[in-house]
Amino acid sequence: MSHTLRNLVLVLGDQLDLQAAAFDGFSAEHDAVWMAEVAEESTHVWSSQPRIAVFLAAMRHFARALEAAGRPLHYRRLDANDTQPTLAAQLRADLATLKPQRLLLTRPGDWRVLQALQDAAQAAGVSMELREDRHFFTTPQDFARHAQGRKGLRTEYFYREQRQRFRVLMDGDQPQGGAWNFDAENREAFGPEGPGFDLPQPPHFEPDVVTREVLDLVRRRFADHPGRLDRFAWPLTRAQALQALQAFIHERLPLFGPYQDAIWPGEPWLYHAQLSAALNLKLLTPHEVVAAAEAAVRSGRVPIASGEGFIRQILGWREYVRGIYWTRMPGYAEGNALQAQHDLPAWYWTGDTDMACLRDALKQTLEHGYAHHIQRLMVTGLFALLYGVEPRQVHAWYLSVYVDAVEWVELPNTLGMSQYADGGLMASKPYIATGKYISRQSPLCGSCRYRPDERVGARACPFTTLYWDFLLRHEARFANHPRLALQVRGLARVDEAERARIRAQADALRVP
Ligand SMILES: Cc1cc2nc3c(=O)[nH]c(=O)nc-3n(C[C@H](O)[C@H](O)[C@H](O)COP(=O)(O)OP(=O)(O)OC[C@H]3O[C@@H](n4cnc5c(N)ncnc54)[C@H](O)[C@@H]3O)c2cc1C
Ligand code: SF4
């Protein structure tokens, strides 16, 4: 390398892609890469052990890939003596010695990190070039154009635009199969026998020496953080991520659609892809994931309802939430449209509750750093919404516990879709339901001390009590809401004495 360092390419823990935009024009002779493990990224929210381990282990594997590609690397390890506590402080310290002419950064996944790195570069007097992240199908500017002049934003219209623009599942100018959306054919529950013994299991990636070292580090350094590491088996390299993708497309995608919303105790993955962490770390591109699913549909191996349902999650929802994030931050994080003020119950961090559905979803979350969408939206999220937890605290919990949690995707899903804290920008109505919804989607109510169809009394299901309490608390706000008014009208059959009983029971549930 020449004596003067031209470009220092900053690579963050969720930017593990040799083709990232910040590498364009990279020359091993003139440029170098910078990566840093810092404590703040695991402590600014109380990150779970699985989440910390996924990020650190994937970073260390990526460092090897960089070395193999011959790209000079300055890598700061958390277990070294001289590391700084924050990314910004570490960057400032390293700029003093490396003295690059310029910094290159692909747009990060977190507004806070972008600000901190830009401030650090400015304080050091080094210019920084921010490059758009071409990992995604769309840019924040594309989203802003889509949103311009619209009264309401709906993912369905955005999704259809992307199907047409990228020619995904299209026959000429018509959607393949004659419809944009096959949801009516999806959303089944399992029968009493459950998913059965032949449920395909996703590949298990046994921790190698690099990963085992990280697991030891996390156990020592973050011993008081939530979650467990004894079942850790996530894909952490590009090769493993590709293997996980192939296994999903061949073995689980065919039944993804019908069982998308089903919950079965002890079966965390069911027919879900388990690919969000690999995608968010940038080990996989959404383009290759969508292309693989589309090819499987076109070959006739996968029904259109499953293939389309899956593609909609990636090409629709994933892009849409990112657009919301980058066009609405930083104010978006402050949203609290329903003025929810309660603290998150402490048992969210342990799973120690009598409610069978929450216990199952929380224990699984702590064990694997994973829960599927309906568990996040209609179990943990629904309970927090009905209980009235302050959205900021719900957001911190989701950002902490899941291995796929990066703020651009976690925040709109939590604050917008799940907690309605943005007042309806992201979701057309609050997703509220009684315990009967959970009893339709899972067998869990059968093993619970509560009864989903009772709203007051010793055996009343807390979801059902809190659902009616939610309607009572927000009756005026939603009385004329196009999608919630019907539910609100149910209050007409609840007399004053019953209303008082519901309120008292809900208040008792909130006593810590
Ligand atoms: C409250 C809440 C918080 C969430 N937090 C996150 C998060 O931090 N990170 C994250 O990646 N997803 C998040 N999601 C979305 C979704 O639950 C996960 O992407 C999904 O459960 C990951 O598991 P999977 O890979 O098996 O997905 P599958 O169910 O098999 O779906 C396939 C893929 O579609 C994408 N996808 C599906 N739904 C969404 C969505 N709503 N938004 C964005 N992408 C989606 C993911 O990349 C996922 O891998 C959250 C959802 C809710 C309701
Ligand atoms: S009865 Fe209520 S708390 Fe118990 S599992 Fe069913 S929905 Fe959950």
UniProtKB/TrEMBL annotation:
Pfam families: DPRP. This is Cryptochrome/photolyase family protein.
